[in-house]
Structure to design on (361 residues):
């Protein structure tokens, strides 16, 4: 700012004082304790970076002339500061919801190719305000106890150490606070943001009502629906139907979450889509030890224990019903192999079936 203030400087200072008085008169501790960055929207430009981490309380305690004298802060950045303060004084996150959604969608369309979903996750446009809305969606629907791994688009993009972390762990933290956690580098922060983005995209426009909403991976939800229907029938499903409706969707889920290598091993263990192979044959083909193959197969259980925690009980109940319907021997064997692969009796050691096979080899 120049020593001889211009007319624009005087108007800016006057506006600052008006907004300052309005915020202080409201005396809203929750609002005043938020950092200036909370009120930034994705399309804002010429932001006063030196002030973004400061709370409104801290900024309002400083005279306009002293703020304007901050190194690297010129008239345009001071104008942005006043604009953000005015936004804080006149709007709330709820009031900004439509504007934020529209701005985010517009930016996404500009930043991505035409064949890319404009609502896809784009971390470059996530402000503290948007992050707060995502958290509010989680609170509104009472799903803070859900695990990140349960709701992530794919476990391949989510670090293993936070698969079991509940969404509620992040509900009382800003993005700035999350980034300051010792265990959270930028990759981990982005993975957490993506999960919240997906939840908000699914539930953001859904009002909290007396109706229940089932959050589950699409493939697994389809499997649960089919098993429920199959159990109500008076005859057991054919072996081909068991493969198509039960095994294939679960294998696609594995491929999505842990990749083609593990999915290929699982297919060969079950004999679904490919000839059935022993662990010895698989280890020879891959050029690795049998212990390594067993280790990779354990990823099937680790994945399903997060993605489908109800899976063991549901598969057990389904198998019991298939016995009552006298399903074929091939179907019973396939179902037994699937249960053993996804939910072994003792995950910390080889299952009896695999132990017997290892001894025979």
């Amino acid at each position: 700012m120049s020593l001889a203030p211009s007319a624009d400087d005087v108007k800016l200072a006057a506006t600052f004082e008006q907004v300052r008085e309005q915020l202080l008169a409201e005396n809203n501790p929750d609002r005043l304790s938020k950092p200036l960055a909370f009120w930034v929207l994705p399309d804002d430009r010429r932001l006063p970076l030196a002030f973004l981490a400061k709370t409104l309380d801290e900024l309002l305690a400083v005279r306009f002339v002293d703020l304007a004298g901050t190194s690297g802060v010129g008239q345009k950045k001071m104008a942005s500061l006043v604009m953000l303060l005015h936004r804080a004084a006149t709007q709330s996150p709820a009031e900004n919801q439509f504007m934020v959604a529209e701005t985010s969608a517009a930016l996404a369309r500009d930043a991505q190719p035409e064949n890319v979903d404009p609502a896809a996750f784009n971390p470059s446009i996530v402000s503290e305000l948007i992050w707060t809305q995502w958290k509010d969606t989680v609170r509104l629907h009472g799903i803070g106890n859900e695990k990140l791994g349960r709701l992530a688009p794919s476990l391949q993009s989510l670090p293993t150490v936070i698969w079991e972390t509940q969404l509620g762990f992040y509900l009382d933290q800003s993005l700035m606070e999350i980034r300051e956690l010792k265990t959270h580098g930028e990759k981990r922060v982005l993975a957490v943001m993506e999960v919240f983005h997906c939840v908000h995209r699914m539930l953001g426009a859904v009002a909290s009502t007396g109706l229940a909403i089932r959050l589950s991976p699409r493939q697994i939800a389809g499997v649960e629906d089919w098993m429920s229907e199959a159990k109500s029938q008076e005859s057991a499903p054919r072996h081909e139907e068991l493969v198509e409706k039960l095994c294939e969707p679960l294998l696609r889920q594995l491929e999505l979450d842990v990749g083609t290598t593990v999915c290929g091993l699982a297919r060969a263990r079950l004999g679904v889509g490919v000839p059935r192979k022993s662990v010895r044959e698989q280890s020879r083909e891959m050029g690795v030890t049998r212990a390594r193959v067993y280790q990779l197969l354990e990823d099937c259980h680790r994945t399903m224990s997060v993605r489908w925690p109800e899976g063991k009980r549901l598969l057990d109940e389904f198998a019991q019903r298939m016995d009552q319907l006298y399903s074929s021997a091939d179907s019973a064997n396939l179902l037994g192999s699937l249960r053993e692969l996804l939910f072994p009796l003792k995950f910390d050691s080889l299952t009896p079936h695999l132990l017997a096979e290892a001894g025979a080899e």
